[in-house]
Write a structure and sequence with these properties.
single chain, alpha+beta, 6-stranded antiparallel barrel, 21 strands
């Protein structure tokens, strides 16, 4: 039985009917070599392209012929040999470049989105520095000192029949004692109040005043307050940095900076018809104006070393004075002592040397201060001083005006011992004088 296909090579005789058997006839392309005509090959010439084989041909596997011994080897191309393009590299280079370009583009896009905001827009100014670095200021910085002192500074207001006066003050005890200037409180008959650093207010009462030293103490009805830390005004040196606190021209919580311009600058101050005030002041160029009176002058560690009291000005009498870099503060050692006297006894002791200066014959042309009279039982007499003696120096400080001797003596506490250099006739002598408190 046949299936209608002729498996023979075109042009050959028809195959006999029946199943294929044995060896193909002679002359068949698959017949053994030397049998009949035709090409001696197990495959037709187009067998590799023909999907159908001759059913009479035995299965055959075509193996490549081994190269003859000694023949030149077939040329082989090494894909990694130098000078030849590498397919792997040719594929990897554009791939890596694309990946890098995408990553860079994504990073730049993210950065611009963060800086400009998700919605776009224009970013103004440089990127701010890290906030913690700005906030963590060194303890000795001016900002840190101001932060430390400001909670203890208050604005003092006194309302009287003459109107309202306003100045500054600072808390010196947790139970509400405040130091200010006597000229801020006035005659003490007004209604006083204080404004704290946080803007809250409290009524105050006048504890006591010392017009001659320009120190007054008031007390507010509040507890748990933060008092200032006191420094040592005797340890100051010219050039030391200082800060002045207060409410100049009603501008509360104002801080100005400067240096100690001079020490023991003797002052004689007072309003017409009022008491004459004497003190050996700390001079500073920190800006001080009306309203700073009574506020603290502090050193670089935030310790109070003076009480701002007065300024020098070039304006004519009756005009409003302003800062020209000449401000004066009462030394805190003196102010603290007077405050303790006022709180303890209601009044301050005045330190005296037991001699009188001034009047006719007191001037010596700038070379000392002549004593007009000496109290028989006073400190000066006890040290051997007499009327007519010329005081040249007190604790090394030159005397040029009567004010110098009065102000410097009042700087010290009663009982302090001072060195006095004086001239009697043509000779110079020295004495140690123990100062005393005024008997009144």
């Amino acid at each position: 039985m046949t299936d209608g296909w002729d498996w023979r090579q075109p042009g050959s005789n028809p195959a006999p009917p029946g199943p294929p058997t044995g060896t193909p006839p002679a002359g068949h392309p698959t017949a053994p070599h030397g049998s009949g005509s035709g090409t001696a090959s197990p495959w037709w010439s187009d067998a590799l392209a023909d999907p159908w084989r001759d059913p009479y041909a035995p299965a055959a596997v075509v193996l490549p012929t081994a190269p003859a011994v000694g023949a030149a080897p077939e040329p082989v191309s090494d894909p990694d040999a130098p000078g030849r393009p590498r397919l792997r590299q040719l594929l990897l280079i554009p791939l890596i470049t694309a990946l890098l370009a995408g990553a860079l583009g994504g990073a730049l896009g993210y950065a611009f989105a963060v800086r400009g905001g998700a919605g776009g827009g224009v970013t103004l100014g440089a990127r701010p520095a890290d906030a913690p670095g700005l906030a963590q200021r060194r303890p000795e910085s001016l900002a840190a000192v101001a932060e430390k002192v400001l909670p203890s500074v208050v604005t003092v207001r006194v309302v009287s029949l003459a109107g309202m006066s306003e100045g500054s003050g600072f808390i010196v005890s947790a139970d509400g004692h405040v130091i200010t200037n006597d000229h801020v409180v006035g005659d003490g008959g007004g209604r006083a109040s204080v404004v704290f650093n946080d803007g809250s207010t409290a009524p105050a009462t006048v504890v006591g005043q010392d017009p001659e030293s320009d120190i007054a103490v008031i007390k507010v009805s509040r507890t748990g307050l933060r008092p200032v830390e006191f420094g040592d005004s005797d340890a100051l040196a010219v050039g030391d940095p200082v800060l002045a606190f207060g409410s100049p021209l009603s501008l509360a919580n104002t801080v100005t900076a400067g240096i100690v311009s001079a020490l023991d600058r003797t002052m004689q101050a007072g309003e017409p018809g009022g008491p004459v005030r004497y003190y050996a002041a700390i001079q500073t160029d920190a800006a001080v104006n009306h309203g700073n009176s009574g506020g603290p002058l502090v050193d670089a560690a935030g310790r109070v070393i003076g009480v701002n009291s007065t300024i020098k000005s070039l304006v004519a009498e009756g005009q409003e004075a302003g800062n020209i870099g000449l401000a004066f503060a009462i030394p805190i050692n003196q102010a603290k002592r007077i405050t303790q006297d006022i709180i303890g006894t209601g009044k301050a002791r005045r330190t005296v040397i037991g001699a009188q200066v001034g009047g006719a014959g007191s001037s010596t042309g700038g070379a000392g201060v002549r004593l007009a009279a000496v109290e028989p039982s006073g400190p000066a007499a006890g040290a051997g001083l007499k009327a007519g003696d010329v005081i040249l120096r007190l604790n090394g400080r030159p005397m040029t005006e009567p004010t110098d001797l009065i102000a410097l003596v009042r700087k010290f506490a009663p009982g302090a011992v001072v060195r006095v250099e004086y001239r009697r006739g043509a000779s110079r002598q020295n004495a140690s004088v123990t100062l005393a408190a005024d008997a009144k």
